C-alpha cells in the first residue's frame, strides 16, 4: 500500500468538472490580471473568515511582509514570533528592515508559549506574529492582552489554519489582520502560489491592496512606491471552487485526526496532538512525537507510507540567522521537539483503512525502536 503525505491528485479528481469549468471561464474571458474572479474570491473568503475585507496576494510570504509594512513596521523595529515555524514568517520580518525576536513553543500545543512573550518585549517591539501551527490557533486572548498592554499590533500567521477558531471566533478576525497562504498543499490550496490577508480594518485592507499593486488603487495613479503581489485570476477562480468544499474537507480532516488519536492511544511511546479546549483544530498536519524518529520513518517508508518533519531546524539554529548570535539551548522545548516530531499523512481523501494501516505500522515501528514515551 502506497500512501503519500498529501494527495493533491485525489482532491482534483473529486472536483475536476468544477475546476475545469472555472479555469475555462477565465480563459474564455482572457481576464488574467485583477479579473472578476479575484473580486469574487475576496468577497467569499472574507465572508468565510467573518471579516469585513480580504485582499488576494501572490503568496503567503507577501501577505506577511505587506501586512507589516502597512502597519508601519520597518528598520530597527522588533517583531516577536515563534521559533518553531517555517522561515517565511521571520524572513518577512527581516524584509521590512525589522528584527525577528523568537519565542519557544508551548510543550502541549506547539504554538507560541505566551508565558515567555513579555520577557522578550523591548522599547523597539512593534508587533507579535503568532503562528496557528499545524492548524491550531495560538492562545489569542492572552496574546491580545499582552499586545494591548504594550501598545503592539497582532498579525495572525494563519497559513496552516483556514477555518480554525478560538473561543468561537474564526481565524482571520483574532488580530489586527491575518495572513493566509494558499500553497497547493494547504487546507485551501491553489494550483500554484497564492495568498491573502483578512481584516476588519477596511483602511488597512486598502493599504495592503495599494502596496500589492505598485502603490496604486487607480490605474497609473501611484500614491506610494509599492510591490507587485497580485493574486492571479486563474488561481482566484480555482480557490473559489475549492472554498465551497472547505468546510466538508475540514470535517473529514478532523474525523481522520480523531481516528488517528483513537488508534494510537494504545501506544505508550507515541505522543499524539493535544487540542486546546478553546480551539477548533483544522489539522493541516497531524504531528506525533516519537523517539528514534529516523529509524521509525525508515520503517514507514519501507511499508510505503510517506512522512514529513515540520520543522526539523528551529529558526534560531538556521544558518540564515547565525548573525543573531543565539546559542544552542536558548529554546529548549523547540530544540528537543525538533528531533521527535513527525507528520503523518493527512488529507480529506485518506480512508479509514489507510489510517489503520499507518497506525499499525507506526506502533510496530515504535515498539521495535523505542522503549519510552517522549517527555
Average pLDDT over all residues? 97
Oligomer: single chain
Strand content: 5-15%
Quickly give the structural class. alpha/beta
Largest sheet: 7 strands, mixed
CATH A-level architecture of the largest domain: 3-Layer(aba) Sandwich
CATH class category of the largest domain: Alpha Beta
Tell me roughly what share of residues is in helical segments. Answer: 25-40%
Extended strand count: 14
How far is it from the N-terminal to the C-terminal residue, by CA?
32 Å
In the CATH hierarchy, what is the superfamily of the largest domain? Type I PLP-dependent aspartate aminotransferase-like (Major domain)
Shape: globular
Uncertain regions: pLDDT < 50 for 5+ in a row?
none
Q: Please report the number of helical segments.
A: 11
What would the CATH topology of the largest domain be? Aspartate Aminotransferase, domain 2
In which order are the strands of the major sheet placed? 1-9-8-5-4-2-3
Rg = 21 Å
Total domain units: 2
Which sequence of SSEs, written as H and E, runs from N to C?
HHEHEHEEHEEEEEHEEHHEEHHEH
Amino acid at each position: 500500500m502506497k500512501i503519500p503525505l498529501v494527495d493533491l491528485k485525489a482532491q482534483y479528481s473529486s472536483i475536476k468538472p468544477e475546476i475545469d469549468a472555472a479555469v475555462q471561464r477565465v480563459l474564455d474571458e482572457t481576464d488574467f490580471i485583477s479579473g472578476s474572479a479575484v473580486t469574487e474570491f475576496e468577497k467569499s473568503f472574507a465572508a468565510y473568515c467573518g471579516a469585513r475585507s480580504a485582499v488576494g496576494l501572490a503568496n503567503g510570504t507577501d501577505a506577511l511582509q505587506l501586512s507589516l509594512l502597512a502597519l508601519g513596521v520597518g528598520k530597527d523595529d522588533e517583531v516577536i514570533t515563534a521559533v518553531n515555524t517555517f522561515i517565511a514568517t521571520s524572513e518577512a520580518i527581516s524584509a521590512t528592515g525589522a528584527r525577528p525576536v523568537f519565542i519557544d513553543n508551548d510543550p502541549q500545543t506547539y504554538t507560541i508559549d505566551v508565558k515567555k512573550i513579555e520577557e522578550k518585549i523591548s522599547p523597539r517591539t512593534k508587533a507579535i506574529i503568532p503562528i496557528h501551527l499545524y492548524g491550531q490557533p495560538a492562545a489569542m486572548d492572552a496574546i491580545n492582552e499582552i499586545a494591548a498592554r504594550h501598545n503592539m499590533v497582532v498579525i495572525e500567521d494563519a497559513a496552516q489554519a483556514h477555518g480554525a477558531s478560538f473561543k468561537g471566533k474564526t481565524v482571520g478576525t483574532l488580530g489586527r489582520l491575518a495572513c493566509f497562504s494558499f500553497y497547493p498543499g494547504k487546507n485551501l490550496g491553489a494550483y500554484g502560489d497564492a495568498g491573502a490577508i483578512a481584516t476588519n480594518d477596511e483602511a488597512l485592507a486598502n493599504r495592503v491592496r495599494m502596496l500589492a499593486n505598485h502603490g496604486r488603487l487607480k490605474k497609473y495613479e501611484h500614491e506610494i512606491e509599492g510591490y507587485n503581489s497580485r493574486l492571479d485570476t486563474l488561481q482566484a477562480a480555482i480557490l473559489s471552487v475549492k472554498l465551497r468544499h472547505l468546510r466538508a474537507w475540514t470535517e473529514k480532516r478532523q474525523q481522520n485526526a480523531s481516528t488517528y488519536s483513537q488508534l494510537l492511544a494504545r501506544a505508550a511511546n507515541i505522543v499524539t496532538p493535544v487540542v486546546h479546549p478553546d480551539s477548533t483544530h483544522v489539522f493541516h498536519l497531524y504531528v506525533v512525537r516519537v523517539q528514534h524518529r529516523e529509524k521509525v520513518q525508515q520503517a514507514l517508508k519501507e511499508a510505503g507510507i510517506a512522512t514529513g518533519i515540520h520543522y526539523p531546524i528551529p529558526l534560531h539554529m538556521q544558518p540564515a540567522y547565525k548573525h543573531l548570535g543565539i546559542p544552542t539551548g536558548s529554546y529548549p522545548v523547540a530544540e528537543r521537539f525538533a528531533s521527535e516530531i513527525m507528520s503523518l499523512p493527512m488529507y480529506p481523501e485518506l480512508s479509514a483503512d489507510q489510517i489503520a494501516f499507518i497506525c499499525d505500522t507506526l506502533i510496530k515501528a515504535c515498539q521495535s525502536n523505542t522503549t519510552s514515551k517522549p517527555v
